[in-house]
Every structure is written in structure tokens, then in C-alpha cells.
Amino acid sequence: MSSQPEVPVKPTYSAQAPSETETIPLDADGKVSDTTTISSSDSGGYITLDKGTTSRTQSGDYVSSIQLIGPDVPNIPVPEELRAEFTGIAYDCQPGGVYFDPPVTLTFVIPDEKWEEVRSSPLVVRWFDAVNDTWIENPTTVDYPRHTVSVKVAHFSVYGVFRQSAVVQQPGPDSSPSMNKTGGSLPSSLSPSPVSSIAGIVLMFVVLSVYRNRKKNA
Length: 218
Fold this sequence. Notes:
CATH architecture of the domain at 22-163: Sandwich
Strand content: 25-35%
Order of helices and strands: EEEEEHEEHEEEEEH
Helix content: 10-25%
Number of strands: 12
């Protein structure tokens, strides 16, 4: 078995009663025998394990039962700088220290009233690293029509949904386009260049010289 990153087995953070433990169907090789979905007791979150997935502890033992505790996990340590971004939705995935190969999918189903509150901001899922006491961002998929937020999970921990501040790129000092009188951008094909301006002046002098010569000869 390949080595896994250190993720401590921790007690559950939730003060509420945990949901019932759900059983994972395993074949004789310890792999998930059929694609399985395990939901939290409130149906607000669920994990999808594809057929052939293995679930093991750090010591290599197979795991045949898991549970999701949430969506309110009141005692998780959210630092001050992230409190405004935290949506209040999180699940404590148990047992801690379980690894999945390949990763499983954790999906959050956002209630309609909460969705109206958070949908204007980009949403991202973070997991709590108890070793370093920090929240780590995961690549996140948001399904706007279905009001769901999903993430691939390689190991169990506490996973929460956070708002993500949108970054607005400011134009540089030399990025302002030329403007025409109506306020729109002047197309580059119509913008006068220095070369064309000089050529126009030279042409004007040539025409003027020819006119004067003809006038003297008349």
C-alpha cells in the first residue's frame, strides 16, 4: 500500500447526536462491490463511492461503514478571518483517518433559503487540517440549477462550504483604449499612425509644389 499523508484520527466536533452509521458493500477483495450513495441523516449531504473503490485506515484495515455528521458542526475552529466567508454548512465525515482510492465524491445540498443568501459569491469547499490547525481549499464543483456543491474526497475530515471573495482585475496604466467622441473604443484600423501622418504631410507639399510650377509656366 502506498504511503498516505498524515491525517489524525480525531474525536467528532459535533455537539449534536450523530447519524446512524451506513454500511459500505464490499466484495471479497475489500473493494466497493457496487456504486453506493450514503446520505446524512438530514439528507443535506451525501457521499458517492464508485464500484471498485477501496476504503482503508492508515494501518491498512478495510472500512465497511461510514457516517456524515452535520450540517451544523458548532465546535469546529473557524478562524476570525474566515468567519465571514463560512456559510455555516459543514459535515464531519467519520471515522477520521480513512483514505479512499480513488477519491469519493462529497456533495452538499444547499437549502433554498441558504442558497439565496450565498449564491451571489463563488463557493468553495475546504477541509480542516487538524495537524496544522488550518482550512485547506479543495477544487470545487458548483451545480447552480440543482443548488449543490461537490468535491472529491481522498480522506475523511471535517469539510465545510465557504464563500470565496471574487477578485476583480484592475486595468493597468497603459491599458486604456483610445476613445471616439461617443465614448466607444476607436478601432485600431481607424487610429492614425505616425507613419501615415508624415506621409500625408509629404503628399501635401508635393501637390502644392506641382501646382505652383504649373502656375509659373502658365
